[in-house]
Every structure is written in C-alpha cells, then in structure tokens.
Amino acid sequence: MRRSGTGPDGLVVVDKPAGLTSHTVVSRIRKLAGTRRVGHAGTLDPMATGVLVIGVERATRLLGHLALTSKTYQATIRLGQDTVTDDAEGEVTATASAARVTRAAIDTGIAKLTGDILQVPAKVSAIKVDGQRSHRLVRAGEEFELAARPVTVSAFTLHEVRQATAADGTPLLDLDVTVDCSSGTYVRALARDLGADLGTGGHLTALRRTRVGPYTLEQAHTLEQLTDSFGVLPIGEAAAAAFPRWDVDEEKARRLINGVRQKAPGLGPGPIAVFGPQERFIALVEERRGETKILAGFA
C-alpha cells in the first residue's frame, strides 16, 4: 500500500530528449510521481538522448547497483575537428582534413579502443579534481590533467562512413557506430581518442543510449507519454529483470529481514535479488565468503 503523500515504488525508463539535463528529467518525474524521493542511474549529457533509468521512492536504493551495469550507445563521430567538450556542444578548437583517412585506418583505430583499455575521461565532465567539478575548472580556465581509468569497451562497431564538410570547406568524415561498454566509459572520449590516433582530431556529434543493463528503448517512455499516463515498473519486477534471482522460504526470509547471514546460493559475484513467498521482494544481497551480506533491504 502506498504511504500517504509519497509516490509509487518502482523504476521509470525514460527516453530522454536532447537539450535537457538528467537533473531536469528527474525534476519532472518528481512532479509526476508526487514525491521528491527520485534519482537516476547514470547521467546523460544534455546533447544525448535515450534510456535514462529513474528510481522512485524505495527503488532509488537500486540505482547505485544499476549504474554499474553495462550500457549500449549509438553514436556519430566526426573526424577532422576537436572541440573543448569532445562533443558538438563545445567550441571547435582545431580542424584538420580527414580526406586521406582510409577505412582500414579507421578499423585499426577502433580495434585499439576495444577491449579492456585505459581511458582519460572528458575534461568537461562531473569528475571531481581536488573537490571541484572538472567542467567548472575548464570554464574557469584552469590547467589540470585527469588520470586514466580502466574501462571495458566490449564492442565498438562501425556501420557507415559518410563525407562531411567544415564551415571553412575542410573535408571531414562522419562515422556511425554502436558502442557496448562498461559503466564509466565516455563515448565522447572514444571519439576524441580515435581522432587523435588518426591525426585528424575527433568529437561526438550525436549520442543515443539504447540500453542500461536489461532496460532498453523498447521499454522507455517519452516525457510526453508519462505526462499523459504516469506509471512505474514495480520494484520487484525491476530487481528480477536486473539481477540474478534467489527464491527463499518463509524462515530464510525472516532471518534475512532480521539481518542474519545465510549460506549463499552460489549465484556468483554481484547483487542478487531475494524473493520470499508470494513474490515478495525482500533484499539485494551479495556473497561474502560463502555467506550473504545485505546490500539493501526492501521488506
């Protein structure tokens, strides 16, 4: 039963439009859900569109774990220009002809950026440097460097190469790609690094997220659709879709609710969604030395 004055417990998969920040989308969902207890799993830049997973009420406890899942993006990379933000939102800082770049060279460059790699994040980002957001340091004209981070690009697929032209007539190339990657990967940094490897510079001109973990565009709703008919994916269904499921009897459920560690079910690393009788979602747990440790309780 919903508590008086609160929203429903569950997830909302939003198809974020271009031009809005993730924070703005969260604010709109707060109004539609009638609660301030709303958050999101994995920020999308204003230019980007696509899947933004929003948690309402108790489902916000799932978000930190959902944010760590893999993601899929469709993107367009422009070779021949660097920008201050590594995407089309920023000022062009350098232009170089991409006329002599071959498909073979592009394929080789993409291969270098596939697999387990070290990536320097985009400077215009929310990463903190000495307690300050790096994008604020960039806009203040500060000089600084970000450390490379390990990320995994499990697939980097090139679909099409198209000719383009800069305002000054310089030949450019646009690459339509799909990227499957781990949490924390910056697709615009992939565009920057591919351009640097090819000697032309590069940035992102379009980005659409098509998947976050098990949640895809097919399940997503536009803000207009949600305004007309607001609803959530119930928290139990959301957990069962995202994590391995462990069904327990009433006695084990009671013990878990009371914080008593149980013998782990052997479902591997990562969060496990625990369900008691009558499809009751009890908790997210993880295995530690053969026993369960509760990550978040929902009983």
TrEMBL record:
<dbReference type="InterPro" id="IPR014780">
    <property type="entry name" value="tRNA_psdUridine_synth_TruB"/>
</dbReference>
<feature type="domain" description="Pseudouridine synthase II N-terminal">
    <location>
        <begin position="30"/>
        <end position="187"/>
    </location>
</feature>
<dbReference type="GO" id="GO:0160148">
    <property type="term" value="F:tRNA pseudouridine(55) synthase activity"/>
</dbReference>
<dbReference type="GO" id="GO:1990481">
    <property type="term" value="P:mRNA pseudouridine synthesis"/>
</dbReference>
<feature type="active site" description="Nucleophile">
    <location>
        <position position="45"/>
    </location>
</feature>
<dbReference type="InterPro" id="IPR015225">
    <property type="entry name" value="tRNA_psdUridine_synth_fam2_C"/>
</dbReference>
<dbReference type="InterPro" id="IPR020103">
    <property type="entry name" value="PsdUridine_synth_cat_dom_sf"/>
</dbReference>
<dbReference type="GO" id="GO:0003723">
    <property type="term" value="F:RNA binding"/>
</dbReference>
<keyword id="KW-0413">Isomerase</keyword>
<dbReference type="InterPro" id="IPR002501">
    <property type="entry name" value="PsdUridine_synth_N"/>
</dbReference>
<dbReference type="InterPro" id="IPR015947">
    <property type="entry name" value="PUA-like_sf"/>
</dbReference>
<dbReference type="InterPro" id="IPR032819">
    <property type="entry name" value="TruB_C"/>
</dbReference>
<keyword id="KW-0819">tRNA processing</keyword>
<feature type="domain" description="tRNA pseudouridine synthase II TruB subfamily 2 C-terminal">
    <location>
        <begin position="243"/>
        <end position="298"/>
    </location>
</feature>
<comment type="function">
    <text>Responsible for synthesis of pseudouridine from uracil-55 in the psi GC loop of transfer RNAs.</text>
</comment>
<feature type="domain" description="tRNA pseudouridylate synthase B C-terminal">
    <location>
        <begin position="188"/>
        <end position="229"/>
    </location>
</feature>
<dbReference type="Pfam" id="PF16198">
    <property type="entry name" value="TruB_C_2"/>
</dbReference>
<dbReference type="InterPro" id="IPR036974">
    <property type="entry name" value="PUA_sf"/>
</dbReference>
<dbReference type="GO" id="GO:0031119">
    <property type="term" value="P:tRNA pseudouridine synthesis"/>
</dbReference>
<comment type="similarity">
    <text>Belongs to the pseudouridine synthase TruB family. Type 1 subfamily.</text>
</comment>
<dbReference type="Pfam" id="PF09142">
    <property type="entry name" value="TruB_C"/>
</dbReference>
<protein>
    <recommendedName>
        <fullName>tRNA pseudouridine synthase B</fullName>
        <ecNumber>5.4.99.25</ecNumber>
    </recommendedName>
</protein>
<dbReference type="Pfam" id="PF01509">
    <property type="entry name" value="TruB_N"/>
</dbReference>
